[in-house]
Structures are given as C-alpha cells and as structure tokens.
Amino acid sequence: MRERPILLNAEMVRAVLNGSKTQTRRIMSPQPADDIRPHVFPNKEIQGWLSSLKHEHGPTTAHSCPFGQPGDRLWVREKTLCLSTNNGKAHIRYLADNAPRTVDIPSRLKPVTPGKCLSNGCYREASRITLEITGVRVERLQAISEADAAAEGVPPAPEFTDTFLTPEGDYATAKVAFQRLWESIYKPASWQANPWCWVIEFKRVEGS
Questions:
Q1: 3-class DSSP state of 25
Q2: Within 10 A of 58 (CB to CB), how many other CB atoms are there?
Q3: Run of H or E residues at 41
Q4: pLDDT along the chain (208 residues), means of 10
C-alpha cells in the first residue's frame, strides 16, 4: 500500500465529509491516443498486476494512474490556516468548515507562519482526511453518467445549496451541474475538449 497526496477544494472537501463524494476525475497527462483500451500489464517492481491501458495499433504503451491503484491511499490537501504556534505545535483551522485542530509541526518543514495558510494546502501530519482507492478506470470526460456525477459530490439543482456554481436554472441533472463545476475549475474549453480522465473511486478511511 502506498500513500499519495491529492488536492481538493473546499466544496469537494465538504462533499467528502458529508459522504456524497466517492469519486474524482483527473485529466490524464499526457493524453493517450483514441485507440486505447483497458488492459493489465505485469510490473516487476510491484507485487501483482497494474491496471492500465494499451493502444490497439502501433507500439504498446502503458498508462499507469499516478494516484495509485485499488488498496492505495490518498491523503487530502485542503486550505488550512495557521492560527498560532507553540512548543512545536500548530493550532490550525480548516477553511472548508472552520474546524479547529492542533497538530505537530514536523522538523522537516520551514517555519509555519501564524496568520497564513499552510503551503500546498497542508502537510501530511495536518491532513484530516485519508481516502482508500477502491477502483481506477479511464473514460472520456463527457461519458460521465448521472449516477457518477452525483458520486462526484455535485447534486442536481433541487438539492444544491452550495455557492461555487452560479444558479442559472439549468442544473436539473447532476451531470449538468458537474459540467458547470468542471468549467469553473478548468475553463469551458476543457469540457468541450472532452479529455480522457482517470476516474478514481474511493472510500473514506475512518479515524484519519
């Protein structure tokens, strides 16, 4: 089992905390050719097999998910404000929901500055959310289903109460709401480009 960081914005952190977000999509880089299909490749450096992709034509090329495979874990980076420091500890507040916490400051870090957010969201010891990957696959962005859009933590309009989308009366489905969210993060052209994405399914590890 390996652990890697993953960055989530405040709205998605709240969706993870309330249990509505169990998937995330990340654009593949570099983008594969259009003739890819699911495949498995033996990997001598890792016990077992590594789920990946290969091309139907030309040389075989593996595309391995940089976020890991089922069984691996992700620790969430989120915006975290340092309130004060004392005796090697930082008193912090998570901006997604203003929850307070006191954490140790690792010796490897540069001085943590009160009144400023921790760099890169937060460091591992300050992360309060750990996710276990339960599934990894690849699909085109626009292929997302209504159920998967809801699993991204974006409900359709009747239930939508958050503020990171501008209400325009066209969020009748979770898929349309997810499109609006995606465009607000990556710009409208990215939805129209319909890139290949890693679809990472996860569950929250309790007690993290």
A1: strand
A2: 8
A3: strand 36-42
A4: 93 94 93 64 40 51 82 96 94 96 92 89 94 91 93 72 47 81 88 92 85
Cα distance between the two ends of the chain:
16
- This model's pTM is above 0.85: no
CA dist 163 and 145 (Å) reads: 23
Q: Which element (helix H / strand E) includes 74? A: strand 73-77
Beta carbons of 134 and 199 less than 8 angstroms apart: no
Q: CB-hemisphere CA count at 13 Å for 118?
A: 26
Please give the backbone phi and psi of residue 166, each rounded to the nearest 5 degrees, phi first. -80, 120
Residues 6+ apart with CB under 8 A from 62: 39, 41, 50, 52, 53, 54
